[in-house]
Design brief:
Helix content: 55-70%
Number of helices: 17
Distance between the termini: 44 Å
Order of helices and strands: HHHEEHHHHEEHHHHHHHEEHHH
Shape: globular
């Protein structure tokens, strides 16, 4: 292997460095379990322990583990089916491009049919609500197991297969960030699969379980519950419909596949992104029709910004000469690529993040203003996106040099115009 394809050593450590990589795998699972348990408590407070806390024996549930593994296996089976299309990702360090099967929408439809079939066979959705804490614990166990296997596998790989940000030489840090860039079993891409399938579609299944349980308890779903489930369904369906766009994201192109992404995909997404529906089931909130219309409009605005900005970016990355981009101003860089400085990307540096945050607020408002807990997603997502744009800022500056400084002068605001 030529030295020019070797992955350089990681010198700048992120997420608090080695200490962060040591603590976060402990703190993140505890946070998920804490949030789920808090939803079921009377106080539903982020600031007080929801006593009594479950014991380790209560967290262990063989059925929950079987459901998690069975769900992941079912999604893997759909992924390898010869349905959908095959496309190629961004060029790797050696110029090659990996192939990916695009069949996320098929997976969503087949998953809905599979969940319905299980219900007809006597496994109701309400079972997920009853065992939600145990399911999260089982998903955490699966995340640790997969992360350890991925790290062990990565130790036998050539340097060119390693992730630029996960090649520090410290096992704790590389385990957390991800040592290998694109772990594959044959043509089965583990990172790409986990990014969009088990957790993202599983998020909708958890939502559906909460809605189903509400119908069992109260006879019909509330307007608040229906709004949140509809908003989140739109978001997931959009991600799967535009599945190919994920191939240009930071997660796929730059980040290794370690505990950070594994746990995020398999545990954090399905069990914290669905927190609003879980909260509403135990703390119902009546929503007036005018308020519902206002919240729906807010979500529509966020989605419009999010989708328009992402579509513009993805078209430009795939084909800068696309006729739909005619008239947009760009600046040249030393890499040969150009940067958009007009359209959505001339307003702020991350207009898609702005749309994301507007939608996040709309998902929480149906829960009312009496508790902070259902707004955890808004708070977390704001911190995540601010941190992500900071990571992106460093990456772009090192990649584009003075051209990026010029871009930042032309587009001074990062996410929110005239504020940040």
């Amino acid at each position: 292997m030529s030295d020019k394809y070797r992955t350089p050593k990681t010198t700048e450590l992120e997420f608090g460095g080695i200490l962060g990589a040591l603590l976060l795998p402990l703190l993140l699972p505890c946070t998920v379990l804490y949030l789920l348990h808090s939803c079921r408590s009377d106080a539903a407070s982020l600031l007080s322990l929801p006593l009594p806390l479950p014991t380790l024996a209560e967290l262990w549930d063989p059925l929950a583990l079987a459901l998690v593994l069975g769900w992941c296996g079912f999604q893997a089976l759909i992924y390898v089916m010869p349905i959908g299309t095959v496309t190629h990702g961004m060029p790797l360090r050696d110029g090659t491009r990996l192939s990916y099967r695009i069949n996320g929408v098929h997976a969503l439809v087949l998953s809905a049919l599979g969940v319905a079939a299980l219900g007809l066979c006597g496994l109701p959705l309400s079972l997920l609500h009853q065992r939600i804490v145990q399911l999260a614990a089982a998903a955490t166990l699966a995340s640790f197991t997969l992360s350890l296997a991925l790290y062990a596998r990565s130790l036998c790989l050539p340097s060119a297969a390693l992730a630029p940000r996960g090649n520090s030489g410290n096992p704790v840090y590389d385990f957390f960030i991800g040592h290998e860039l694109n772990p594959r079993v044959g043509t089965f891409d583990l990172k790409y699969f986990c990014e969009l399938r088990p957790g993202l579609i599983g998020w909708l299944v958890v939502d559906a379980a909460m809605l189903w349980r509400e119908c069992e308890l109260r006879g019909s779903p509330s307007l608040s519950m229906m709004l949140i489930c509809s908003f989140q369904f739109l978001y997931v369906f959009d991600a799967l419909w535009h599945e190919e766009a994920v191939l240009t994201t930071m997660d796929i192109v730059h980040d290794g596949f370690g505990f950070m992404l594994v746990f995020g995909d398999l545990t954090w997404v399905p069990f914290t992104y669905s927190l609003q529906t879980h909260f509403l089931l135990h703390h119902p909130h009546t929503l007036t029709v005018p308020m519902a219309i206002a919240i729906t409009s807010l979500n529509g605005l966020g989605y419009f910004i999010f989708r328009s900005a992402n579509s513009q970016k993805n078209r430009f990355r795939r084909n800068p000469t696309d006729p739909r981009l005619a008239g947009l101003e760009t600046i040249a860089t030393a890499t040969g690529r150009r940067l958009l400085v007009s359209g959505w990307w001339g307003m702020v540096r991350h207009p898609n993040y702005l749309g994301d945050l507007v939608m996040a607020l709309a998902w929480s408002l149906p829960c009312g203003l009496g508790h902070v807990l259902p707004y955890f997603y808004v708070l977390y997502f704001t911190a995540l996106l601010v941190h992500r744009q900071s990571r992106d800022q460093g990456l772009c500056r090192s990649k584009y040099g003075s051209a990026w400084d010029t871009y930042c002068q032309r587009v001074p605001y990062r996410i929110l115009p005239y504020v940040y």
